[in-house]
Amino acid sequence: MKQLLLLSVLFIGFNGSSQDSTIYQAFDFWVGDWEANWIDAKGNMIIGSNLITKELDGKVIRETFTDPSTGFLGTSISVYSPADSSWHQAWADNSGGYINFKGIVDEGVRIFQTDPLQKGDDVIVRRMMFYNIQPSSFDWDWEVSKDGGKTWKLAWQIKYLRKK
After folding, report:
1. Domains of the chain with CATH codes
2. By three-state DSSP, how is residue 123 classified?
3. What is the mean pLDDT of each run of 10 residues along the chain (164 residues)?
């Protein structure tokens, strides 16, 4: 009986089923083939695309973003880390950009946010906010703070529509 109890405890501990599995699925809404719509600085409607897949046994979310109006391309990997009980994302793009984010799950909003970075008198924090999440659409905002996250300025807003 003791051996069975010990094996049960070990099995639950190693397979993670004792943890809340919903945190592992917090960004699953994003998986799919998306049309990304936004208004550029000149007032033109841009229609880009973003393909989001689950890879590596479903543990990693991979993003492939395309802006056909400028040739801007980006990719990211996002993963939930049980080691620190947090979501993480690494972003890279064809302009040489690279950004690390930490994920925040807050009710109906999903956020990827950078650590604060001191630049002169400013403390820069950048974040992506996913909200109004529905099965076939969601809204996404890119926001920047110069005061360590006390106030935010909208820099880019995208409406995502799932491709049929």
Report:
1. 24-162 (2.40.128.20)
2. strand
3. 40 43 94 98 97 97 97 98 97 98 94 98 98 98 98 98 94
Residue pair 52/36 in contact by the 8 Å Cβ criterion: no
Contacts of 144 by beta carbon, 8 Å cutoff, 6+ apart: 124, 125, 126, 152, 153, 155
The structure's pTM equals 0.85
Q: Evaluate whether 36 touches 69 at the Cβ level (below 8 Å).
A: no
Name every residue whose Cβ is closer than 8 Å to that of residue 3 and which is 6 or more positions away in sequence. Answer: none
Q: Is-contact 104 117, C-beta < 8 A? A: no
Specify the residue for token string 């007032």.
43
Closest residue by Cα to residue 128 from 104, 92, 93: 104
Residue entry with tokens 């905002």: 141
